[in-house]
User: What shape does this take?
Amino acid sequence: MPFDDLRQWIAALDRAGELKRVKTEVDPILEIAEITDRVSKGLDAKGVPGGPAILFENIKSHRGARVLINQFGSEARMKLALGVSSLDEIADRIRVFMDVKSPQGILDKIKMLPMLAEMGKFFPKIVATGPCKEVIQREKFSLLDFPILRCWPQDAGRFITLPCVTTRDPKSGKRNLGMYRMQVYDERTTGMHWQRQKIGAEHYREALRRAANRSGDGAAASRAAVDIMARSSGGSVLAEGGRPSGKMEVAIAIGTDPAVTFSAIVPAPPDVEEYLIAGFLRGAPVELVKCETVDLEVPAASEIVLEGHVHLDELRTEGPFGDHTGFYSLEDLYPVFHLSCVTHRKDPIYATTIVGKPPQEDAYMGKAVERIFLPLMKLTIPELVDINLPIEGVFHNLMIVSIRKSYPGQARKVMNAIWSLGQAMFTKCVIVVDEDVDVQNLADVTLKVLNHIDPERDIQFMLGPVDSLDHASRLPNYGSKMGIDATRKWAGEGFTRPWPDEIVMDAKTRALVDGKWRDLATELGIK
Ligand SMILES: Cc1cc2nc3c(=O)[nH]c(=O)nc-3n(C[C@H](O)[C@H](O)[C@H](O)COP(=O)(O)O)c2cc1C
Assistant: This one.
C-alpha cells in the first residue's frame, strides 16, 4: 500500500512501533542534532541499530511546530517506506520490466497487458489542488518561522537538509527532482547546493547558456557552458566577467510521502524523471499541483512548498556544513535561491535529517539505492555479481564488487565502467574480487583482497572527477581514484606461478564431524 503523504507514513511508523514522540522542549539549534546522533548510533527497543524515527513536538521558539527526523534511519524503516520485505524485491521488479521481449504473437501481447496497466500507474498526475495549498503566503512569510536545524557547531548557519528540489530542463522541458541542502541566509534567501555534476546544476548551466545566447554574447555563452562556479573564499559575488542575467525557476517540497523523498536522492539518468521512479516504487502515481508563482509542479500532499528563483548572475559562499563524510564540507560558491511564495498545510510537519559521522539515516537510504541499482548496473556491466558500499566508506569512498571473470584484464574494464557510470564516477576506491568472494562479508573480503594482490601490479590509479565533499583531493572536484584488482591472476595476465587453492575441508570429513557435533560441542563447551 503506498503512502499518500507524510502523515500516512507517520501513522504507519507509529503502528509498527517505529516512531517515538518527544514532548520535552528541544532546541533546533544543535540540540536536536545531538539527540538524533545519539539515537542513530544506538539500538532501538528491538535491539536493532538505527534507533526509532522521532517526532519532536515541543520545539524551542516555535510553538506548535513539529519536526520529523530519522524517518529512514533503519533497514526495517527503509523497507517499510518502500512497502517491501526485502530491498531486493524492488530489484526483482525492475528486472521483470527489463526482461520484456518483443511480443511474438497475440498471446504474448495479451500477457503483456497487466504489465502495461501497471506501468500506467507510474506517471505523475496533475491535480487541481491539494493539502500543500491550505496556506498560501506571497507577502508576509519568513523561512525563520520554520524550525530549521543548525546541525553542527561549525555549520555556517541553519540548513534545510531534506528538501526535494524541482527544476525544469530548459532544453527538454523535463522535470528533475534532486535533494540538495539549502543554507538559510535570511528570511527569504538560501543557498542552492547542487554540486556541479548534479542535474539541477546542469539545468542551471543550460539556463545560463540560453541567457547568454539571448543576449547575443557568444563569449559569455561559452563561459557559461563551462562551470564557472569557481572556488573562492569571498562573500557574495556577482557577474564574473559579465555573467548573463536572468532567473531560473525552482520549487522545493519538504515533507512528502517517503517514496518521493527517497526518489530525490536516487541517481537516476538525466532524462528519467524522479516522479516516475516514485510512482514505480509506490505502485501509484504521484499527484502534483501547479505552483503559485513559478511554472513548476510539486507533490500536492507536501507539508511545505518553497517557490522561487535562482538568479543566473549571483553566487554566494555556502558552508561549511557538517557532512556525511564525518567532516565539515568546506565553504564554496553556489547559486542563491530567492523565495517568491511559501505554501503549506495549516499545521505543517517539518521533515529533516542530520548527516555526520556514519551511521546516520542517509546510510540506510544509500544502502537502498545500492540494492535497487544493482540490476541497472548489470545492464552495462553484465559480469557484475554483487556490490557492497560499506557505510563507513560514505558511498563515494569505497565500492567492493564481485565479478564473473571470463577474460584477462576484466577487473580493470569493470573499474573503468564504474568510473563512467553516473554518480559512481566519484568512487574513490573500487575493489574487484572474483564471484566466489562474498562482498557483503568484510572479513572474507579483507582476507582475500590482501592475500590476492601484488600492490604495485594490481592497483590502478585514475584521474578524474571526484565528489565535491572530498577534502583530500588535489583540487576541489578533481583528483585521483584507485582500483584494486583482487581477482585471481591468470597466465593470460602474465601471472605464470601456480595459484593456490583456498583451504576447505573435504566433504567426507565434514560429514563425519557433523554427525558427532552435538556431543562434541557439549564436551567442548561451545555452541
Ligand atoms: C540527506 C541528503 C542530502 C544531500 N545533499 C546534497 C547536496 O547538498 N548537494 C548535492 O549535490 N547532493 C546532495 N545529496 C545527494 C543527491 O541528492 C543525489 O546525488 C541525487 O542523486 C541528486 O539528484 P540528481 O541526480 O537529480 O541531481 C544529498 C543526499 C542526501 C541523502
